[in-house]
Amino acid sequence: MVGYGIQSMLKDGHKHLSGLDEAVLKNIGAGRELSAITRTSLGPNGMNKMVINHLDKLFITNDAATIVNELEVQHPAAKLLVLAARAQQEEIGDGANLTISFAGELLEKAEELIRMGLHPSEIIIGYTKAINKTLEILDDLVEKGSENMDVRNREEVVLRMKSAVASKQFGQEDVLCPLVADACIQVCPKNPANFNVDNVRVAKLVGGGLHNSSVVRGMVLKNDAVGSIKKVEKVKVAVFAGGVDTSATETKGTVLIHSAEQLENYAKTEEAKVEELIKSVADSGAKVIVSGAAVGDMALHFCERYKLMVLKVSSKFELRRFCRTTGAIALLKLSRPNVDELGYADSVSVEEIGGARVTVVKNEEGGNSVATVVLRGSTDSILDDLERAVDDGVNTYKSMCRDSRIIPGAAATEIELAKRLKEFSLKETGIMQVGSVCYCKIW
């Protein structure tokens, strides 16, 4: 049976909501529900949430961005708030919870106005006027002289970073902030505006406590060296993205062998070819070979013979960061690298930290663009939450590099905004006054 009206245009199983009670207020209700979930996690004393995602992975955190990403929100109106929080996280790196909580309050006040008889478009106009006025007021509240901050001043950086880190790890900010500040200052380019948050890495090692954490000027790989050579200093590095092994031909072929002598000669030919390739790498001056794929047994044998240290980095992202740390260029196949394709490292050593063997690549004298914060903690959940706190600190440093202006904290700015917005709203006439008053009540 063919339906009438909108039913004839949509497929079976659709839902069509219209009108004030059906559509608008239900959407507002969904946004308020999501806001209520995250609001209790706002601030340094916010409660942790226990979230289990579709892969049965457990998250224990008060980070709103992580919570809403793992909740898999389906309601379209609530999903808009999730997208807003995600955009805030990607752009600024913090403030996702405030985004959702503030949006929930705006929706709650909007619901009151709708029930009073105002049209949604009128409420939007009132809110927009209040937002524009807020931006004007914020420029007046900026601390004088804060725009001239030196982003390489460690004490000033730690001071500004504390509030962001404390919102995730209250009581641990005095330990975490100096670590993050050191890592950020080490990799800060000549033009601070070009600071890249990806240059500050985090290595999480279970065991010990936060006081055992440290900063490495270089990279920390969470795996052991492949061969028997575990430590080298002031070396050139060759990186091969395609692996260190005999290269397979693109076409299949058959080799007919009539005698044992022919078999032996065939094996010797292959062996000689591998030795020739490894020897050519050693002759180029490289002392460390980094493989992005498998390392063959025969190739490893000749690497040991020519005193070459072998590392395996399976992740292409980590391989890219390794190249950035050492200044090397990743080659697609095993061959003799040119001088300008080799990287440099002050030291490459295998160390044992908390029972785990890791490879530490330091590049302090040669200059580098990657620093690693080595975090220690008793469980994976604690380490994950510490990593989020470090991420907030690094993003705060990025914001300082772009715009170092600051405003008073401890809710002083919000109270002043509410006061000035109320004065502004009383000057408005008619319906717009109601929307502006509601906006300032939220502050």
UniProtKB/TrEMBL annotation:
Cellular component, GO annotation: cytoplasm
Keyword rRNA-binding on entry: no
Coiled-coil intervals, chain numbering: none
Keywords, sorted A to Z: ATP-binding, Chaperone, Cytoplasm, Nucleotide-binding
Gene3D superfamilies: GroEL (3.50.7.10), GroEL-like equatorial domain (1.10.560.10), TCP-1-like chaperonin intermediate domain (3.30.260.10)
Location relative to the cell: Cytoplasm
TM spans (from-to): none
Molecular functions (GO terms): ATP binding; ATP hydrolysis activity; ATP-dependent protein folding chaperone; unfolded protein binding
Family listed: Belongs to the TCP-1 chaperonin family.
PANTHER family recorded: CHAPERONIN (PTHR11353)
Protein name per its UniProtKB record: CCT-theta
